[in-house]
Amino acid sequence: MNSERLMEKFNEYKKAVVRLKEALEEDLTNPLVYDGVIQRFEFTYELAWKLMKAYLEYEGYATVNSPRAAFKEAFAYGLIFDGDVWIDMIDARNLTVHSYDEQMAKEIYDKVKKRYYDAFAAFAKKMAEVLK
Questions:
Q1: What are all long-range contacts of 12-19, with beta carbons under 8 Å and residues at least 24 apart?
Q2: Residue numbers of the chain with a pLDDT score lower than 50
Q3: What whole-number distance in Å separates Cα of residue 84 and Cα of residue 118?
């Protein structure tokens, strides 16, 4: 991976974070908002761990092959700050992929709004700093 491709991955990730924020700002009277937020959460999650993987390997810090390994190494190298939130995301992501019900959707939505979005945004900010 070269630095240009790493920046492309970062830019894709930043766009996903913005799109997630847009979805979180929508009116909850529309039940499709929950589905939209979950979809954008899944997309942002995938881009986040793959960006971590790419950066860690580019810098020669670690080789990672899973989200859990990426989060662990990113935490160790100071790219993310609340490792528990990121580990919790793994379970949430697995729930959204393998099952669906309205109550679960609302619970995941709340986690995205109250915890996950801030973690995604903080990671974007940190990556902007290290990729200067």
A1: 12/47, 13/44, 13/47, 13/48, 13/51, 13/124, 13/127, 14/124, 14/128, 16/40, 16/43, 16/44, 16/47, 17/44, 17/117, 17/120, 17/121, 17/124, 19/43, 19/44
A2: none
A3: 13
- Amino acid 88 reads D
Q: What is the pLDDT of residues 7-27, one digit of tens each?
A: 999 999 999 999 999 999 999
d(CA 9, CA 50) in angstroms, rounded, equals 8
Class of domain 3-131: mainly alpha
Give CA torsion, residues 100, 93, 10, 131, to 10 deg.
Answer: 160
Residue type, 39: Q
